[in-house]
Amino acid sequence: MGGGAAGQFAAQTLRTEGFGGRLVLVGADPAAPYDRTKLSKGFLAGKADKKALPLRQSDFYKQHRIEVLTDTRVTGLNLARQQLTMAGRDPLRYDKLLLAPGCQPNTLPQLPGHDLAGVLPLRTAQDAEAIREAAANAKHVVIIGSSFIGMEAAASLAAENEEQGNQERRITVIARDKEPFEKVLGPKIGAMFRNLHSRHGVRFKAEAEVQALEGENGRVTAVRLVSGQRLPADVVVLGVGVRPATEFLAEAFELDKDGGLRVDAHLRAAEHVYVAGDVARFPLAAGLGQHRIEHWRLAQQHGACAARNMLGYETAFAEVPFFWTQQYGKSLRYAGHAAEWDEIIFHGDVRRHDFLALYAHRNRLVAAAALGRDDDMMIIEELLRRDQMPTPTAARRKTNWAKLLDG
Known about the structure:
Number of domains: 3
Helix content: 25-40%
Distance between the termini: 43 Å
Largest sheet: 5 strands, parallel
């Protein structure tokens, strides 16, 4: 259940691992599984079209006998009967079930004017297409939120401005934090990204809060801040985070406060039921606690691991979380997971976009982020997987990462 990265990769893995029975992939999206990472990057910038989005072509599913139910909303789960209920369809019984519903975007329903035309989230291909069309003739685009989605959207639209020589369209990001990505990457890297955006014409309203969205004839015309400032807006893109799409599971499971669903090391939530992707709160390897992590590649890895365990492998999930963000041709890579840290150890020059940042928590290096250090990052990811990272004290010195791996 779920037509995103986790669900698609699980279905694919079940076949490659030799499962020959009936296999059904249920997705709420009208389209077959596609690459969401391209939406805020290449697609919004006009460098990728719809043909570049599908994860697999339609004949792949026919060839591997995978039944794909698109535009299908699951409304409930009966654990005792091993049955999914769906809107407009007969219930579906399962022997093994993978739950990978993903997340849905926050839409600020408490905000006056949130339902005006031109106020758009970015989660699906339809969302991205709507933003692209609305922004084509817009003079003022306001992005609420300095999340990765929000900032990538700003970068894509600004890059499109430069390519088309469009000096009329103004892009403004409204952020609650002082720096973008401050809670994930720290203020120093956040400031680097803010300066990078500023050099490409994106304006920032930092430590700001939206009071209301204003409109005329049902269409958004401005964003009013708590400070009283009024920003003209033809299009407003919501980049204010997401929440697990798990309301339909509230009767079957005790959900976390944020809507996440706890699983064991095998990604199992109940007998015959596994969970993967954005909604799974799973135990990280090396005793680093339970976390819910919204990464594309992790969702695929979850899907593959859950598929094997559905076939009886009993394999504990041990992969290292990894994500990347690409803005203005700069690709930051991040491995590990640091929900909090005591210090960040830097090598290189953040302002020159050539650096390695190591995140230390309780005298352990638990994550790393880098620009221009891809070879080191591949090795660090493997060291994290093996739980063989050096101590923070040792890592303050210049480190030959390849030598550490060989040792």
